[in-house]
Structures are given as C-alpha cells and as structure tokens.
Amino acid sequence: xxxxxxxxxxxxxxxxxxxxxxKKPNVLIILTDDLxxxxxSYYDNKDLSTPNIDQLRRDGMRFDYFYSNSPVCAPTRASLxxxxxxxxxxxxxxxxxxxxxxxxxxxxxxxLLPKVLKKAGxxxxxxxxxxxxxxxxxxxxxxxxxxxxxxxxxxxxxxxTHLRHGINFMRLNDQKIEPVGHATDLFTQWSVDYIQKQAxxxxxxxxxxxxxxxxxxxxxxxxxxxxVLKKNPGMNEKRAKLVALIxxxxxxxxxxxxxxxxxxxxxxxxxxxxxxNGGHLxxxxxNGPIRDGKQSMYEGGLRVPTVISWPNKITKGSNSTHxxxxxxxxxxxxxxxxxxFSHKIEGRSFANTLLNMGNEQIERPIYFTRREGxxxxxxxxxxxxxxxxWKLLQNSPFLPYELYNLKNDPLxxxxxxxxxxxxxxxxxxxxxTFIQEGGRVPWQKPLN
Length: 448
Fold this sequence. Notes:
448 residues, Alkaline Phosphatase, subunit A, Arylsulfatase, C-terminal domain, 2 domains, ten-stranded mixed beta sheet, four-stranded antiparallel beta sheet, 12 helices, 31% helix
C-alpha cells in the first residue's frame, strides 16, 4: 500500500514538472521612464549601482543599438503595445488630460499586445503607468488587460501624493484608489503580489510593468538619497537625487525578479527591460558619449538601455549590435511564445537573434516622430529616419534637416546635409512616405 502511494506521488510529481517544462513562458516587460542610455552600471558607470538590472544583463542578452520609437513617452508606449509606428496608431505626441496640450489619441481599432496574448491563453496584467488613454474606449481593461493597477496620465507631479493637475489618476481596474507610499514601491509591491498569485495558476501570464521612475520630479526616498551621498561624498546634489531614484528603482526590479525566483517561475519567464526614451539632461541623466537626451532626435534621445533574458533559452551574457526598436518587441514576444496574428504591423521580430539562430538583418528604414505644443514646437511634428549607417533628422519643426553617417560619426558631430545631397534626398523621400502614412490617422478624439 505504501509503495502504491509513493508511486502515485512520484507520478504526480513527474507530471507536474513535465507540465511546468511544457508550459508557455511567462512574459514580463519592465519599462522605465526616461532612463539614460548609460544610467545602468553594466556600462561601467561608476557613480551608480544597479545590481539587479546588471544581473538581468548577465542572465540574458544586452542590446547596444536599441532605439525607442520616439524621444518621449506616450508615442513609444503606443509602439511597444501595438508593434506599429506611433503616428500610425494616432499617438505622435503625449496624451494628456489638458485638452489644449494633448497631442495623441490611440486609434480604438488598434490591436494591442495583451489582446493577442490573451487569445493565446495568457492572463494579462498592466501595473504602473499607462498613458495611452484616460477614458473609454482606450482604458487598459478595454485594450486586452485582464487586470490593471496603476496610473493613467502622463506624469505624476509628486511620487508620494500621486496627483496631476490636482487630479487622482490612480486606478484598480476602473476604480479610483488612493494608495499610500512612493509610486515605485507601490508598483513593485503590486507586481510582487500579482506574480505570487499567478504562481498558483496553470495559466501563463503577461505582466507589463511600467514604472514612472526616474522621470521628474526626481524624488527618491530619503534613505536612498542618504545612501548615495554617503557612498559618493561631494557628488552634485542634483545628480545624487537622480542616482538615488534609479538605485531605488533597481531595488524594486530586484524584488519583482526575486518573486519570480521564489515562486519557481524565473527560468521560464521572458523578461524585457528597456526605457521609453533617453535620459533627461536637465536632471543630469547619463546618456553616455552619444549626443543629447530626451526630446531630441539625436542618438541620446532615442538610444535606450535594453536587456532581454529567458534563462531557459537565451544565452547568458550575450550581446547584440543589431538595430532594433520598441515596436519590434511586439512580434518578437509573439514569435517566442508561439502566438499568431494576421493584422498589419511595422515591427520586425528579432527572435532569431535572441535564440542564436541567426538573423538576416535585412536593411530597413526606421522612422521616429514626435508632435508637441508650446512656442518651441508650435503643435507641429519633427522627425528622424535611419537607413543603414545613415540618419537624417530635424531636431525641431523650425530647424533645417541634418545628415549623419553613424558608422563614421557616431557622436553626430559632422553634418553632411550639404556635402551629400544625394543621400539627403533619398532619405527625405523615404521620410515623406512615412509622414504621409501617419497623416492618415487622426491624433485627436473625434467630436461626438
């Protein structure tokens, strides 16, 4: 009798592990807000420490030429979730509560990543910053997320009070909530709670964790700032605050990853770590040697730190110098988990790169856009396009185009627009086709 019970137990145990091995991978996308290209210590940045992000890098693949789709947040988030260029889905600029300063409206027909993953059997959750719509039909639960616990607007004016224009945009699904604590800690704890709960389910999960940090206002908890100042006496106080906010963020990421490990889900979880745009230079962000920062079409506004890990499949400590961008994550994830789709996107899967199966890397133009108001931008859009080593950009709607060869001039110091009119014309003609395509999609909500 005892032998029979033991045999049944061993059979159940082996069946459990077999099911675990055959289970589709979980997917965790960690999107930071305004994290500078070199504001991670895996790039040997000596004035800050990001051990948990560095561990993801050691456990996965580092991308050195990964671009956000825009130098500001909402357009990049639209591309990440849709696999499309941001203005092709109606989000060329920031979606804001203030209608007079709103520059985007997500086309309600856009099919977002969670909707496709949901059809493939995933439980889908978004925790943190949304910034793709403040009302129906563009709320997270209406766009494919089973669960939403986070922030609807573009930015918080205070990490502790969680308000914008004096309005509370914190939600649990469709219910207004008033949580107490630093926003980074809240998003971290909510993610840990979700991961622990999903560990009890046979259903794979997709968690989109979008932190507000380290977006301004730069408000680290006091104990984190004290640690930075103790470790780096004499550091510029503004820089110290940003470093503290980033190190606090890194600690939160560590807690989330630790929840995966403790629940036995880490080895079979695809983790994407990236940023929505380059670092904000007025806050003393570090974008490395590349030019400029957030809001800019130079490399510093668009290149972002990116790591993807999946211990079961991706070679640990590997690197990629292939050019990819935010919208490519959409088809890549779907290919990795075996989910199919038939609608049109512009993103291109780089799953072969991740799995070390080769990648043709056929040359393609990649296009960047941003629309903004105020005197500096006047409600107009400005753009950049890269094809191979060449990049044509306009860094303001009121400035002339500039041309750079990124292979010979990675710091964008030598403008070749006058000395190479042929390439300028070629890229300009390509750019016009993208602008025309984007122009077919309204970026304001239609009047009722």
